[in-house]
Amino acid sequence: MISARTRAWWRATLALCLGSFLVFINLYVPQPLLPDLQQTYGVSTLAVSFVMSAATLSLAAALLVFGPLSDAVGRESIMRYSLLLAGVCSIVLAFAPNFTALLALRLLQGFVLGGLPAVAIAWMGDEFDKPALLGAVGLYIGANSLGGISGRVIGGIVADIGGAPAAFVTVGVITLVGGVVFWRLLPRSQAFTPQRFHVATAVADLYQHLCTPVLLAAYVLGGINFMVFINQYSYITFRLANAPYSLAASSLGLIFLTYLSGTAGSMLSGRLAAQLSPARCMILGVVILMLGTAITRAESLTLIILGLTVNAFGFFLAHSLASSWVGRNAQRARGSASALYLVFYYTGASLGGFWLEPFWLWDGWAGVTLASWLLFGVTLCMAIWLRRVERRQEQAAVEKS
């Protein structure tokens, strides 16, 4: 097993962080372009949000394939080829002839992108000891946020210069180059034991995970939090593209720099969890999310940005700990357990527009914040219940010792 802060740990963590970064620049590059795409194609806010939802939904479906498959054939090849194919998809997106073709290509790209996130944390669960796993997951998820920031910033800036096609080509080239580096950097697995792949066994493993309350609660927490968080950013672009703000695509892309606080939240999650406990940190993350959402109700652009910054910190703190919770509490088939967490996570992202759209049409951003608080109340209850489970686990460990 790889120990924390060793040379092997740094090399493996760097490779997986690079892979995570590349996945998320591809996934989120269209988000600051949504107002422009809405005008170009003459579609509704809900319809244009499918540019994001199509990719996240197919990514969620891919996790159900790649997670169990990786338990049988190994993790490395799946991650390597998915990155290279994702880069090709981004370049092809630049030549989409119409909105329907764009959505179809995003569906395909989302499926391809699912290869790395489906198995990366499972790879870490195989190769790292438990102390090393907590720190590595925090850095890995921090790279998620950096990739998300970079994709949006690149998308906004490049689109202002050469349009959306130029943004897709730029991200595609970055992904192909980075994929080659990832291929060479990722070390070979030493602790993986392949299991013969049977559909019935894979379905049974998924069913067992869903019937395990300590896993299901983490799945629900991660899925609902992301459902609200990521779609808040979509609707804030519509708010800020309109008067009195009237921000251009490049400026909307810069709004996503607030994700940097999410990177900090992910990277600090391991240290905070060691001091407070993982479940307490999940509670803290959800409370911070509720606070940040309240701040975004202000009319001041400065306060809106502050609220988004607070939100990002709280979300990634809770997400990092929920994700590592699954890795530590899954008793078998870690690949499918981690994949199932991400199925909830990205399915939530895909459905968020359906939840927030009626509130947006009813009362604009004030409606979106109300819809957000309603669901954060649910995830806060999940986190409190996980703390009770955690306390029982601590008591059982003391009794055994």
Series of secondary-structure elements, N-terminal to C-terminal? HHHHHHHHHHHHHHH
Q: What is the residue-averaged pLDDT?
A: 88
Strand content: under 5%
**What is the oligomeric state here?**
single chain
Task: Write up what this structure looks like.
This protein is 85% helix and 0% strand. The protein is built from 15 helices and no strands. It has one domain (7-185, 201-400): Up-down Bundle (Growth Hormone, Chain: A). By secondary structure, it is an all-alpha fold. The protein starts with 6 loop residues before the first helix and ends with a helix.
Question: What are its keywords?
Answer:
Growth Hormone, Chain: A; 401 residues; mainly alpha
Kindly summarize this structure in a few lines:
The protein is mainly alpha-helical and 401 residues long. The protein has helices at 7-28, 34-41, 45-48, 50-73, 76-93, 99-113, 115-127, 130-185, 199-210, 213-241, 249-255, 260-276, 278-295, 301-329, 334-400.
